[in-house]
Amino acid sequence: QVQLVESGGGLVQPGGSLRLSCSASGNIFFGNVMGWYRQAPGKQRELVATISSGGSTNYADSVKGRFTISRPGNNDRVSLQMNSLKPEDTAVYYCMIRNGPETSWGQGTQVTVSS
Predict the structure, then answer these.
(1) 98 Cβ contact partners less than 8 Å away, ≥ 6 residues apart
(2) pLDDT per position as a tens digit, 50-59
(3) What angle do CA 35, 38, 40 make, to 5 degrees?
(4) Cβ atoms within 10 A of the Cβ of 60, count?
(5) Dist CA 67 CA 60 (whole Å)
């Protein structure tokens, strides 16, 4: 089982920026996919962005052009740079990794966009 630890959430005004980071530990295979999902109150968890170990990315339409996912350094980290934040981006953001046959999730970090 892979463990994930997220950081970087918080409160920001509309139009502001935040950067989320996630570190994975455990038996991590090459060829994994890491990413971010989010869940707003009363809504289902939804994809934000994913990135493969080879650098291929996938974004939700709602965040394209505003969010950038990256994998800095080793094969065990993922970051999400969020710019031009909107109130509708408010949610708990979860880091995930698809590692071989398993998918693991972080505990979630709250992002609140409000004036």
Answers:
(1) 32, 33, 34
(2) 999 989 999 9
(3) 180
(4) 15
(5) 10
